Amino acid sequence: MRPIRYGALALAAAALTATMATAGEDWKAHKQDLRTELFVEADVDRDGALSVTEFAAVPDIMRRRFTEKRLAEVDTNGDGAVSLEEFLAAPPPHHRRGGCHGPGPGDEG
Ligand SMILES: [Ca+2]
Ligand SMILES: [Ca+2]
Q1: Is the pTM here over 0.70, yes or no?
Q2: Which ligand is nearest the CA of 41, by number?
Q3: Distance between Cα 10 and ligand 1 center (Å)
Q4: N or C: more exposed end of the chain, with fewer CB within 10 A?
């Protein structure tokens, strides 16, 4: 059995922790960017704030974006529509990574 070099092990653990922290920060920044995009799209009158009407439209915008992304995945021939063959060939949304609750870390568009 090889002797464990704790120095190297500690360095590897520190590197892994740093990598995970960076990935976490990247994900946070990515999520923040998506939320900012959502805000900008919802702010229809461009006054830098969401009125009740604009704020109420946020779930619809999210749903539309999810649907567009999902359609693009299922539409394998890229004609902008889902044929019966494409529909039947696609796994149901809840079988995908991230499920029906949207993308998680590592799910890139
Ligand atoms: Ca506004
Ligand atoms: Ca198609």
Answers
A1: no
A2: 1
A3: 51
A4: N
